[in-house]
Amino acid sequence: xxxxxxxMFVHVQPLFRSLLLAGILLSSCQLPPTVQSLFxxxxxxxxxxxxxxxxxxxxxxxxxxxxxxxAAEVFVTISHAxxxxxxxxxxxxxxxxxxxxxxxxxxxxTATLKADLKWSDATPxxxxxxxxxxxxxxAFAPTTPLLREMRGIDRVEAVDPATVVFTLPAPYAPLMSLxxxxxxxxxxxxxxxxxTLNLVSLTVGAGPFVFAEKDEAGSxxxxxxxxxxxxxxxxxxxxxxxxxxxxxxxxxxxxxxxxIAELEGPWSVEQPATVSTARVVQNELMxxxxxxxxxxxxxxxxxxxxxxxxxxxxxxxxxxAGLTHLAVDTMSIPNHPFAVSVPVxxxxxxxxxLAAAGWTWDSEQKQxxxxxxxxxxxxxxxxxxxxxxxxxxxxxxxxRRLGVSVELTSSDRQTYLNQFIPPFAYDVAIVTWxxxxxxxxxxDTFLYxxxxxxxxxxxxxxxxxxxxSATLNLPGYxxxxxxxxxxxxxxxxxxxxxxxxxxxxxxxxxxxxxxxPIARPVHTTAWQxxxxxxxxxxxxxTPWYLFGVEQWYRTAD
Length: 557
What we know:
Elements: H1 2-27, H2 33-36, E1 50-54, H3 70-79, E2 84-86, E3 92-94, E4 97-102, E5 108-113, H4 127-138, H5 145-150, E6 155-160, E7 163-167, H6 175-178, H7 186-189, E8 209-214, E9 220-224, E10 237-241, H8 246-254, E11 260-263, E12 275-281, E13 284-290, H9 301-310, H10 313-319, E14 326-327, H11 351-356, E15 360-362, E16 367-370, E17 373-374, E18 376-382, H12 386-401, E19 405-411, H13 413-417, E20 428-434, H14 453-456, H15 480-491, H16 495-511, E21 515-528, E22 531-532, E23 553-554
Parallel strand pairs: 1-10, 1-11, 18-19, 18-20
Antiparallel strand pairs: 2-3, 4-5, 5-7, 6-7, 8-9, 9-10, 11-21, 12-21, 13-20, 13-21, 14-21, 15-16, 16-17, 22-23
Helix pairs in contact: 10-12, 15-16
Protein backbone atom coordinates (compact mmCIF):
# COMPACT_ATOMS: atom_id res chain seq x y z
CA UNK A 1 0.00 0.00 0.00
CA UNK A 2 2.83 2.37 0.84
CA UNK A 3 4.45 1.71 -2.54
CA UNK A 4 1.17 2.51 -4.35
CA UNK A 5 0.84 5.81 -2.53
CA UNK A 6 4.41 6.70 -3.37
CA UNK A 7 3.83 5.97 -7.06
CA MET A 8 0.68 8.15 -7.09
CA PHE A 9 2.69 11.07 -5.66
CA VAL A 10 5.33 10.70 -8.37
CA HIS A 11 2.70 10.80 -11.11
CA VAL A 12 0.76 13.75 -9.65
CA GLN A 13 3.80 15.88 -8.89
CA PRO A 14 4.38 17.20 -12.47
CA LEU A 15 0.73 18.24 -12.72
CA PHE A 16 0.95 20.00 -9.36
CA ARG A 17 4.06 21.90 -10.52
CA SER A 18 2.20 23.04 -13.64
CA LEU A 19 -0.80 24.29 -11.68
CA LEU A 20 1.45 26.06 -9.20
CA LEU A 21 3.32 27.80 -12.01
CA ALA A 22 0.03 28.84 -13.62
CA GLY A 23 -1.17 30.25 -10.30
CA ILE A 24 2.00 32.32 -9.95
CA LEU A 25 1.62 33.67 -13.46
CA LEU A 26 -2.06 34.49 -12.91
CA SER A 27 -1.35 36.31 -9.67
CA SER A 28 1.34 38.45 -11.28
CA CYS A 29 -0.77 39.93 -14.06
CA GLN A 30 -4.00 41.92 -14.31
CA LEU A 31 -6.72 40.04 -16.16
CA PRO A 32 -9.68 41.61 -17.92
CA PRO A 33 -12.89 41.64 -15.81
CA THR A 34 -14.47 38.91 -17.93
CA VAL A 35 -11.51 36.60 -17.28
CA GLN A 36 -11.33 37.57 -13.61
CA SER A 37 -14.96 36.55 -13.18
CA LEU A 38 -14.00 32.97 -14.09
CA PHE A 39 -11.84 32.81 -10.98
CA UNK A 40 -14.14 34.69 -8.57
CA UNK A 41 -17.67 34.28 -7.29
CA UNK A 42 -17.88 37.98 -6.45
CA UNK A 43 -20.10 39.95 -8.86
CA UNK A 44 -18.30 42.51 -11.00
CA UNK A 45 -19.73 45.93 -10.12
CA UNK A 46 -19.87 48.25 -13.13
CA UNK A 47 -18.11 51.55 -12.64
CA UNK A 48 -18.74 54.88 -14.29
CA UNK A 49 -21.79 56.76 -15.40
CA UNK A 50 -23.77 59.40 -13.58
CA UNK A 51 -26.98 59.94 -11.61
CA UNK A 52 -29.11 63.08 -11.94
CA UNK A 53 -31.11 64.29 -8.92
CA UNK A 54 -33.81 66.96 -9.14
CA UNK A 55 -34.09 69.03 -5.97
CA UNK A 56 -37.17 70.85 -4.63
CA UNK A 57 -35.48 74.25 -4.28
CA UNK A 58 -32.64 76.31 -5.70
CA UNK A 59 -29.02 75.69 -4.78
CA UNK A 60 -27.36 79.04 -4.17
CA UNK A 61 -25.41 79.67 -0.97
CA UNK A 62 -24.34 76.76 1.24
CA UNK A 63 -22.79 77.43 4.63
CA UNK A 64 -22.60 74.41 6.97
CA UNK A 65 -23.50 76.42 10.07
CA UNK A 66 -26.63 77.77 8.39
CA UNK A 67 -28.15 75.25 5.97
CA UNK A 68 -31.47 76.81 5.01
CA UNK A 69 -32.82 74.56 2.21
CA UNK A 70 -33.10 70.90 1.32
CA ALA A 71 -30.95 71.53 -1.77
CA ALA A 72 -28.13 72.85 0.43
CA GLU A 73 -28.48 69.88 2.75
CA VAL A 74 -28.16 67.40 -0.12
CA PHE A 75 -25.13 69.26 -1.49
CA VAL A 76 -23.34 69.22 1.87
CA THR A 77 -24.10 65.52 2.39
CA ILE A 78 -22.66 64.52 -0.99
CA SER A 79 -19.64 66.81 -1.18
CA HIS A 80 -18.30 67.09 2.36
CA ALA A 81 -17.37 64.81 5.22
CA UNK A 82 -17.52 65.07 8.99
CA UNK A 83 -16.13 63.08 11.87
CA UNK A 84 -19.46 61.26 11.73
CA UNK A 85 -22.15 60.72 9.09
CA UNK A 86 -25.77 59.83 9.85
CA UNK A 87 -26.89 56.46 8.49
CA UNK A 88 -30.30 55.68 6.98
CA UNK A 89 -31.84 55.67 10.48
CA UNK A 90 -30.29 58.98 11.49
CA UNK A 91 -27.78 57.25 13.78
CA UNK A 92 -24.19 58.63 13.82
CA UNK A 93 -21.60 56.37 12.18
CA UNK A 94 -17.85 57.09 11.99
CA UNK A 95 -16.73 58.74 8.76
CA UNK A 96 -13.39 60.53 9.20
CA UNK A 97 -13.29 59.14 12.72
CA UNK A 98 -11.54 55.89 13.64
CA UNK A 99 -12.64 55.82 17.28
CA UNK A 100 -13.47 57.99 20.26
CA UNK A 101 -13.50 57.66 24.01
CA UNK A 102 -14.78 59.77 26.90
CA UNK A 103 -13.27 60.17 30.33
CA UNK A 104 -15.30 58.79 33.28
CA UNK A 105 -16.88 62.19 33.89
CA UNK A 106 -17.93 62.46 30.23
CA UNK A 107 -16.42 65.93 29.95
CA UNK A 108 -13.34 65.12 27.86
CA UNK A 109 -13.93 63.28 24.60
CA THR A 110 -10.92 62.19 22.57
CA ALA A 111 -11.46 61.66 18.84
CA THR A 112 -8.91 59.73 16.76
CA LEU A 113 -8.94 60.21 12.99
CA LYS A 114 -8.51 57.40 10.49
CA ALA A 115 -5.05 56.94 9.03
CA ASP A 116 -3.87 58.64 5.83
CA LEU A 117 -6.90 60.88 5.30
CA LYS A 118 -6.71 63.08 2.23
CA TRP A 119 -8.61 66.01 0.80
CA SER A 120 -9.71 65.60 -2.80
CA ASP A 121 -6.61 67.55 -3.92
CA ALA A 122 -4.41 64.97 -2.12
CA THR A 123 -3.49 67.36 0.72
CA PRO A 124 -3.40 65.47 4.06
CA UNK A 125 -6.50 65.95 6.22
CA UNK A 126 -5.39 66.22 9.84
CA UNK A 127 -6.53 67.24 13.28
CA UNK A 128 -5.57 70.82 12.37
CA UNK A 129 -8.51 70.95 9.92
CA UNK A 130 -10.90 69.66 12.61
CA UNK A 131 -9.68 72.18 15.18
CA UNK A 132 -9.86 75.01 12.62
CA UNK A 133 -13.48 74.10 11.76
CA UNK A 134 -14.76 73.97 15.32
CA UNK A 135 -12.76 76.89 16.67
CA UNK A 136 -13.92 79.05 13.77
CA UNK A 137 -17.57 78.27 14.45
CA UNK A 138 -17.13 78.71 18.20
CA ALA A 139 -16.04 82.29 17.46
CA PHE A 140 -19.26 83.07 15.59
CA ALA A 141 -22.11 85.00 17.16
CA PRO A 142 -24.76 82.40 18.17
CA THR A 143 -27.30 83.27 15.45
CA THR A 144 -28.49 79.72 14.72
CA PRO A 145 -29.42 76.75 16.95
CA LEU A 146 -26.17 75.04 15.94
CA LEU A 147 -24.00 77.99 16.90
CA ARG A 148 -25.83 78.36 20.21
CA GLU A 149 -25.35 74.66 20.90
CA MET A 150 -21.64 74.84 20.14
CA ARG A 151 -21.23 77.25 23.03
CA GLY A 152 -21.44 74.08 25.13
CA ILE A 153 -17.92 73.18 23.99
CA ASP A 154 -15.17 74.74 26.11
CA ARG A 155 -12.13 73.82 24.00
CA VAL A 156 -11.12 71.88 20.89
CA GLU A 157 -7.42 71.01 20.76
CA ALA A 158 -5.12 68.92 18.57
CA VAL A 159 -2.87 66.53 20.48
CA ASP A 160 -1.15 65.21 17.36
CA PRO A 161 -2.05 65.09 13.62
CA ALA A 162 -4.57 62.30 14.22
CA THR A 163 -6.04 63.21 17.63
CA VAL A 164 -8.51 65.90 18.69
CA VAL A 165 -9.68 66.51 22.26
CA PHE A 166 -13.07 68.10 22.96
CA THR A 167 -13.43 69.54 26.46
CA LEU A 168 -17.00 70.11 27.68
CA PRO A 169 -18.39 71.75 30.80
CA ALA A 170 -20.72 68.76 31.27
CA PRO A 171 -21.38 65.42 29.54
CA TYR A 172 -23.11 66.00 26.22
CA ALA A 173 -23.99 62.91 24.16
CA PRO A 174 -25.57 64.92 21.26
CA LEU A 175 -21.94 65.74 20.42
CA MET A 176 -21.94 62.46 18.48
CA SER A 177 -24.45 63.76 15.94
CA LEU A 178 -22.97 67.26 16.04
CA UNK A 179 -19.82 65.63 14.66
CA UNK A 180 -21.65 65.21 11.34
CA UNK A 181 -20.76 68.87 10.79
CA UNK A 182 -18.51 69.06 7.69
CA UNK A 183 -14.81 69.52 8.37
CA UNK A 184 -13.45 72.46 6.36
CA UNK A 185 -10.17 72.40 4.39
CA UNK A 186 -8.04 74.88 6.29
CA UNK A 187 -5.43 75.10 3.51
CA UNK A 188 -8.11 76.36 1.09
CA UNK A 189 -10.48 78.49 3.17
CA UNK A 190 -8.25 79.51 6.06
CA UNK A 191 -7.08 82.69 4.33
CA UNK A 192 -10.54 84.09 3.50
CA UNK A 193 -13.21 85.63 5.73
CA UNK A 194 -15.25 82.65 6.90
CA UNK A 195 -18.46 84.71 6.78
CA THR A 196 -18.21 84.80 2.98
CA LEU A 197 -17.56 81.07 2.57
CA ASN A 198 -19.87 79.39 0.06
CA LEU A 199 -19.33 75.63 -0.24
CA VAL A 200 -21.11 75.59 -3.61
CA SER A 201 -18.02 76.86 -5.41
CA LEU A 202 -15.45 75.01 -3.29
CA THR A 203 -13.62 72.49 -5.49
CA VAL A 204 -11.82 70.78 -2.61
CA GLY A 205 -13.68 68.52 -0.22
CA ALA A 206 -13.50 65.22 1.65
CA GLY A 207 -16.90 63.81 0.73
CA PRO A 208 -17.64 61.08 -1.83
CA PHE A 209 -18.14 63.70 -4.56
CA VAL A 210 -16.77 67.23 -4.98
CA PHE A 211 -17.97 70.25 -6.95
CA ALA A 212 -16.71 70.32 -10.56
CA GLU A 213 -18.80 72.91 -12.40
CA LYS A 214 -22.16 74.58 -12.84
CA ASP A 215 -23.39 74.34 -16.42
CA GLU A 216 -25.39 76.86 -18.44
CA ALA A 217 -28.67 75.15 -17.53
CA GLY A 218 -27.97 75.71 -13.83
CA SER A 219 -27.13 72.09 -12.98
CA UNK A 220 -24.31 71.37 -10.54
CA UNK A 221 -21.86 68.67 -11.57
CA UNK A 222 -20.09 66.84 -8.76
CA UNK A 223 -17.25 64.50 -9.70
CA UNK A 224 -16.22 61.36 -7.84
CA UNK A 225 -13.56 61.81 -5.17
CA UNK A 226 -11.13 58.87 -5.59
CA UNK A 227 -9.62 59.70 -2.18
CA UNK A 228 -12.88 59.41 -0.23
CA UNK A 229 -12.30 57.73 3.11
CA UNK A 230 -14.81 54.92 2.45
CA UNK A 231 -13.45 54.17 -0.98
CA UNK A 232 -13.66 55.67 -4.44
CA UNK A 233 -17.29 55.97 -5.66
CA UNK A 234 -18.52 53.60 -8.37
CA UNK A 235 -20.20 56.49 -10.21
CA UNK A 236 -18.23 59.15 -12.09
CA UNK A 237 -20.59 62.04 -11.39
CA UNK A 238 -23.75 63.18 -9.65
CA UNK A 239 -25.72 66.03 -11.20
CA UNK A 240 -27.92 68.23 -9.02
CA UNK A 241 -30.61 69.82 -11.16
CA UNK A 242 -32.17 73.24 -10.52
CA UNK A 243 -35.59 73.39 -8.89
CA UNK A 244 -38.59 72.53 -11.04
CA UNK A 245 -42.23 71.71 -10.42
CA UNK A 246 -43.09 68.30 -9.01
CA UNK A 247 -45.01 67.50 -12.20
CA UNK A 248 -42.03 68.32 -14.44
CA UNK A 249 -39.65 66.41 -12.19
CA UNK A 250 -41.84 63.31 -12.18
CA UNK A 251 -42.21 63.56 -15.95
CA UNK A 252 -38.41 63.60 -16.26
CA UNK A 253 -38.06 60.58 -13.96
CA UNK A 254 -40.66 58.68 -16.00
CA UNK A 255 -38.80 59.56 -19.21
CA UNK A 256 -35.50 58.40 -17.63
CA UNK A 257 -33.82 61.75 -18.26
CA UNK A 258 -33.18 61.96 -14.52
CA UNK A 259 -32.96 59.16 -11.99
CA ILE A 260 -34.13 60.69 -8.69
CA ALA A 261 -36.43 63.58 -7.80
CA GLU A 262 -37.41 65.05 -4.45
CA LEU A 263 -40.96 66.37 -4.85
CA GLU A 264 -42.76 68.87 -2.68
CA GLY A 265 -45.54 67.27 -0.65
CA PRO A 266 -47.15 63.86 -1.21
CA TRP A 267 -47.56 62.40 -4.71
CA SER A 268 -50.78 60.58 -5.55
CA VAL A 269 -50.72 60.56 -9.37
CA GLU A 270 -50.18 57.19 -10.99
CA GLN A 271 -46.71 56.67 -12.47
CA PRO A 272 -45.06 54.02 -14.69
CA ALA A 273 -44.16 50.67 -13.14
CA THR A 274 -40.46 51.46 -13.50
CA VAL A 275 -40.81 54.47 -11.18
CA SER A 276 -40.93 54.00 -7.41
CA THR A 277 -42.03 56.59 -4.87
CA ALA A 278 -41.56 56.90 -1.14
CA ARG A 279 -43.11 59.31 1.34
CA VAL A 280 -40.50 61.00 3.54
CA VAL A 281 -41.59 62.78 6.70
CA GLN A 282 -39.83 66.02 7.50
CA ASN A 283 -38.15 67.04 10.71
CA GLU A 284 -41.03 69.17 11.97
CA LEU A 285 -43.99 68.47 14.20
CA MET A 286 -47.40 70.09 14.47
CA UNK A 287 -48.77 69.47 17.95
CA UNK A 288 -51.19 70.64 20.60
CA UNK A 289 -49.30 72.23 23.50
CA UNK A 290 -51.26 72.33 26.75
CA UNK A 291 -50.35 74.85 29.44
CA UNK A 292 -49.76 72.62 32.48
CA UNK A 293 -48.57 75.39 34.81
CA UNK A 294 -50.14 75.79 38.23
CA UNK A 295 -53.63 77.36 38.30
CA UNK A 296 -54.08 76.94 34.54
CA UNK A 297 -56.96 74.85 33.16
CA UNK A 298 -54.76 71.97 32.04
CA UNK A 299 -52.72 71.77 35.22
CA UNK A 300 -55.29 69.03 35.97
CA UNK A 301 -53.78 65.77 34.61
CA UNK A 302 -57.20 64.13 34.39
CA UNK A 303 -58.52 66.87 32.13
CA UNK A 304 -55.47 66.55 29.88
CA UNK A 305 -56.16 62.84 29.51
CA UNK A 306 -59.77 63.58 28.58
CA UNK A 307 -58.73 66.01 25.86
CA UNK A 308 -56.24 63.53 24.44
CA UNK A 309 -58.82 60.75 24.40
CA UNK A 310 -61.42 63.03 22.81
CA UNK A 311 -59.12 64.15 19.99
CA UNK A 312 -59.42 62.06 16.84
CA UNK A 313 -56.16 63.15 15.25
CA UNK A 314 -56.43 61.29 11.91
CA UNK A 315 -59.98 62.51 11.38
CA UNK A 316 -59.05 66.10 12.25
CA UNK A 317 -56.24 66.09 9.67
CA UNK A 318 -58.44 64.37 7.10
CA UNK A 319 -61.27 66.88 7.55
CA UNK A 320 -58.96 69.87 7.45
CA ALA A 321 -59.15 71.05 3.84
CA GLY A 322 -55.73 71.46 2.27
CA LEU A 323 -53.88 69.42 4.91
CA THR A 324 -52.87 66.71 2.43
CA HIS A 325 -49.20 67.61 2.98
CA LEU A 326 -49.41 66.37 6.57
CA ALA A 327 -48.87 62.81 7.79
CA VAL A 328 -50.41 61.66 11.06
CA ASP A 329 -47.90 58.83 11.55
CA THR A 330 -45.57 60.95 13.65
CA MET A 331 -43.26 58.00 14.28
CA SER A 332 -41.77 57.71 10.78
CA ILE A 333 -38.25 58.95 11.60
CA PRO A 334 -36.50 56.38 13.82
CA ASN A 335 -35.13 57.86 17.03
CA HIS A 336 -37.34 60.93 16.63
CA PRO A 337 -38.72 62.31 19.90
CA PHE A 338 -42.10 60.94 18.81
CA ALA A 339 -40.82 57.67 17.36
CA VAL A 340 -42.53 56.01 20.32
CA SER A 341 -45.95 57.58 20.75
CA VAL A 342 -48.90 56.96 23.03
CA PRO A 343 -51.86 56.03 20.79
CA VAL A 344 -54.82 58.38 20.83
CA UNK A 345 -58.17 56.65 21.29
CA UNK A 346 -61.45 57.76 19.71
CA UNK A 347 -63.60 58.24 22.80
CA UNK A 348 -66.98 59.59 21.68
CA UNK A 349 -68.62 60.01 25.10
CA UNK A 350 -66.44 62.16 27.37
CA UNK A 351 -69.10 62.62 30.07
CA UNK A 352 -67.94 59.77 32.35
CA UNK A 353 -64.31 60.78 32.05
CA LEU A 354 -65.08 64.43 32.79
CA ALA A 355 -67.25 63.39 35.73
CA ALA A 356 -64.28 61.53 37.18
CA ALA A 357 -62.32 64.77 36.87
CA GLY A 358 -65.01 66.70 38.73
CA TRP A 359 -66.92 68.14 35.77
CA THR A 360 -70.67 67.52 35.58
CA TRP A 361 -73.04 68.09 32.69
CA ASP A 362 -75.61 70.89 33.10
CA SER A 363 -78.37 69.95 30.70
CA GLU A 364 -80.10 73.34 30.99
CA GLN A 365 -77.04 75.42 30.15
CA LYS A 366 -75.69 72.67 27.89
CA GLN A 367 -72.18 72.82 29.28
CA UNK A 368 -69.85 71.11 31.72
CA UNK A 369 -69.42 72.78 35.11
CA UNK A 370 -67.07 72.35 38.06
CA UNK A 371 -67.79 74.46 41.11
CA UNK A 372 -70.08 76.59 38.94
CA UNK A 373 -67.23 77.36 36.57
CA UNK A 374 -67.96 76.36 32.95
CA UNK A 375 -65.48 74.24 31.01
CA UNK A 376 -64.21 76.39 28.15
CA UNK A 377 -61.16 75.39 26.16
CA UNK A 378 -59.34 78.40 24.72
CA UNK A 379 -57.50 77.25 21.60
CA UNK A 380 -54.83 79.66 20.33
CA UNK A 381 -53.49 79.66 16.78
CA UNK A 382 -51.21 81.80 14.63
CA UNK A 383 -53.45 83.29 11.93
CA UNK A 384 -50.52 83.54 9.52
CA UNK A 385 -50.19 79.74 9.53
CA UNK A 386 -52.98 78.64 7.21
CA UNK A 387 -52.51 74.91 7.85
CA UNK A 388 -52.72 75.49 11.61
CA UNK A 389 -55.82 77.64 11.13
CA UNK A 390 -57.62 74.88 9.21
CA UNK A 391 -56.58 72.30 11.78
CA UNK A 392 -57.77 74.53 14.64
CA UNK A 393 -61.19 74.86 13.05
CA UNK A 394 -61.60 71.10 12.60
CA UNK A 395 -60.44 70.40 16.17
CA UNK A 396 -62.79 73.02 17.60
CA UNK A 397 -65.68 71.50 15.68
CA UNK A 398 -64.72 68.03 16.89
CA UNK A 399 -64.60 69.07 20.55
CA ARG A 400 -67.86 71.01 20.32
CA ARG A 401 -69.62 67.91 19.01
CA LEU A 402 -68.72 66.29 22.32
CA GLY A 403 -70.37 69.08 24.27
CA VAL A 404 -67.19 71.00 25.18
CA SER A 405 -67.22 74.76 24.73
CA VAL A 406 -64.31 76.07 22.67
CA GLU A 407 -63.07 79.60 22.13
CA LEU A 408 -60.90 79.74 19.04
CA THR A 409 -58.47 82.65 19.28
CA SER A 410 -56.49 83.52 16.18
CA SER A 411 -54.02 86.38 16.35
CA ASP A 412 -51.11 87.95 14.52
CA ARG A 413 -47.80 86.18 14.97
CA GLN A 414 -46.31 88.47 17.60
CA THR A 415 -49.44 88.35 19.76
CA TYR A 416 -49.50 84.57 19.36
CA LEU A 417 -45.85 84.25 20.41
CA ASN A 418 -46.34 86.54 23.39
CA GLN A 419 -48.54 83.84 24.96
CA PHE A 420 -45.42 81.76 25.60
CA ILE A 421 -43.82 84.34 27.88
CA PRO A 422 -45.12 85.39 31.31
CA PRO A 423 -47.92 85.36 32.29
CA PHE A 424 -48.42 82.44 29.81
CA ALA A 425 -52.03 83.39 29.09
CA TYR A 426 -53.16 80.43 27.03
CA ASP A 427 -54.84 77.06 27.62
CA VAL A 428 -53.89 75.08 24.53
CA ALA A 429 -52.12 76.19 21.35
CA ILE A 430 -51.29 74.67 18.00
CA VAL A 431 -47.52 74.81 17.69
CA THR A 432 -45.18 73.87 14.86
CA TRP A 433 -41.88 72.66 16.29
CA UNK A 434 -38.83 72.36 14.01
CA UNK A 435 -36.17 69.96 15.26
CA UNK A 436 -33.37 71.34 13.07
CA UNK A 437 -29.97 72.42 14.34
CA UNK A 438 -28.26 74.26 11.51
CA UNK A 439 -30.89 76.88 10.73
CA UNK A 440 -33.57 79.00 12.38
CA UNK A 441 -35.83 78.72 9.32
CA UNK A 442 -35.32 75.16 8.06
CA UNK A 443 -35.54 71.84 9.90
CA ASP A 444 -32.39 70.19 8.61
CA THR A 445 -31.60 66.49 9.09
CA PHE A 446 -27.90 66.27 8.23
CA LEU A 447 -27.08 67.18 11.85
CA TYR A 448 -30.18 65.44 13.24
CA UNK A 449 -30.39 64.39 16.88
CA UNK A 450 -33.33 62.71 18.55
CA UNK A 451 -33.14 64.43 21.92
CA UNK A 452 -36.42 65.73 23.35
CA UNK A 453 -34.83 67.92 26.01
CA UNK A 454 -35.97 71.07 24.21
CA UNK A 455 -39.65 70.17 24.53
CA UNK A 456 -39.86 68.87 28.08
CA UNK A 457 -36.78 69.67 30.19
CA UNK A 458 -37.81 71.57 33.30
CA UNK A 459 -34.53 73.51 33.15
CA UNK A 460 -35.80 75.15 29.97
CA UNK A 461 -39.03 76.54 31.39
CA UNK A 462 -39.03 80.25 30.65
CA UNK A 463 -38.23 81.99 33.96
CA UNK A 464 -39.67 85.30 32.89
CA UNK A 465 -37.44 86.79 30.22
CA UNK A 466 -39.24 87.53 26.94
CA UNK A 467 -37.42 84.70 25.18
CA UNK A 468 -39.41 82.76 22.60
CA SER A 469 -36.52 80.59 21.46
CA ALA A 470 -37.45 77.28 19.89
CA THR A 471 -35.64 75.50 22.70
CA LEU A 472 -38.13 76.49 25.40
CA ASN A 473 -40.26 74.00 27.31
CA LEU A 474 -43.50 75.62 26.12
CA PRO A 475 -46.04 73.64 28.19
CA GLY A 476 -44.14 74.18 31.45
CA TYR A 477 -43.81 70.41 31.92
CA UNK A 478 -41.85 69.12 34.89
CA UNK A 479 -41.35 65.50 35.96
CA UNK A 480 -38.47 64.21 38.13
CA UNK A 481 -38.46 60.77 36.50
CA UNK A 482 -38.29 62.31 33.03
CA UNK A 483 -35.49 64.66 34.12
CA UNK A 484 -33.49 61.75 35.58
CA UNK A 485 -33.76 59.81 32.33
CA UNK A 486 -32.75 62.85 30.29
CA UNK A 487 -29.70 63.40 32.49
CA UNK A 488 -28.75 59.76 31.88
CA UNK A 489 -29.23 60.23 28.13
CA UNK A 490 -26.96 63.27 28.09
CA UNK A 491 -24.21 61.25 29.81
CA UNK A 492 -24.58 58.19 27.55
CA UNK A 493 -22.27 58.37 24.52
CA UNK A 494 -23.23 54.90 23.28
CA UNK A 495 -25.83 55.70 20.60
CA UNK A 496 -27.86 52.48 20.98
CA UNK A 497 -28.12 52.76 24.76
CA UNK A 498 -28.93 56.46 24.51
CA UNK A 499 -31.76 55.86 22.02
CA UNK A 500 -33.32 53.37 24.44
CA UNK A 501 -33.19 55.88 27.31
CA UNK A 502 -34.70 58.60 25.08
CA UNK A 503 -37.63 56.30 24.24
CA UNK A 504 -38.31 55.65 27.92
CA UNK A 505 -38.26 59.38 28.61
CA UNK A 506 -40.60 60.29 25.76
CA UNK A 507 -43.14 57.67 26.85
CA UNK A 508 -43.30 59.31 30.27
CA UNK A 509 -43.63 62.79 28.79
CA UNK A 510 -46.28 61.82 26.24
CA UNK A 511 -48.31 59.96 28.86
CA UNK A 512 -48.67 63.27 30.69
CA UNK A 513 -50.40 64.71 27.57
CA UNK A 514 -48.63 68.06 28.00
CA UNK A 515 -48.06 67.80 24.25
CA UNK A 516 -50.34 65.88 21.89
CA PRO A 517 -48.63 65.06 18.56
CA ILE A 518 -50.81 65.85 15.55
CA ALA A 519 -48.95 65.52 12.24
CA ARG A 520 -45.78 66.19 10.33
CA PRO A 521 -45.25 67.54 6.80
CA VAL A 522 -44.11 65.07 4.15
CA HIS A 523 -42.40 65.19 0.78
CA THR A 524 -42.02 62.48 -1.85
CA THR A 525 -38.91 60.91 -3.31
CA ALA A 526 -39.29 59.32 -6.76
CA TRP A 527 -36.68 57.21 -8.50
CA GLN A 528 -36.21 55.26 -11.68
CA UNK A 529 -34.98 51.67 -11.86
CA UNK A 530 -31.40 51.37 -13.00
CA UNK A 531 -29.53 52.20 -9.77
CA UNK A 532 -28.32 49.56 -7.34
CA UNK A 533 -25.87 48.96 -4.49
CA UNK A 534 -23.87 45.86 -3.56
CA UNK A 535 -26.55 45.01 -0.98
CA UNK A 536 -29.57 45.60 -3.24
CA UNK A 537 -31.65 48.50 -4.50
CA UNK A 538 -31.97 52.00 -3.13
CA UNK A 539 -33.82 52.78 0.09
CA UNK A 540 -35.24 56.27 -0.32
CA UNK A 541 -37.98 56.49 2.31
CA THR A 542 -35.63 58.35 4.65
CA PRO A 543 -34.07 61.84 4.56
CA TRP A 544 -30.67 60.11 4.87
CA TYR A 545 -30.96 58.03 1.70
CA LEU A 546 -27.61 59.41 0.47
CA PHE A 547 -25.76 57.48 3.15
CA GLY A 548 -23.53 55.08 1.19
CA VAL A 549 -23.91 57.02 -2.09
CA GLU A 550 -20.33 56.07 -2.93
CA GLN A 551 -21.58 52.52 -3.51
CA TRP A 552 -24.33 53.41 -5.95
CA TYR A 553 -23.84 52.09 -9.47
CA ARG A 554 -25.79 52.09 -12.71
CA THR A 555 -27.37 48.89 -13.95
CA ALA A 556 -28.70 48.17 -17.43
CA ASP A 557 -31.75 50.40 -17.89
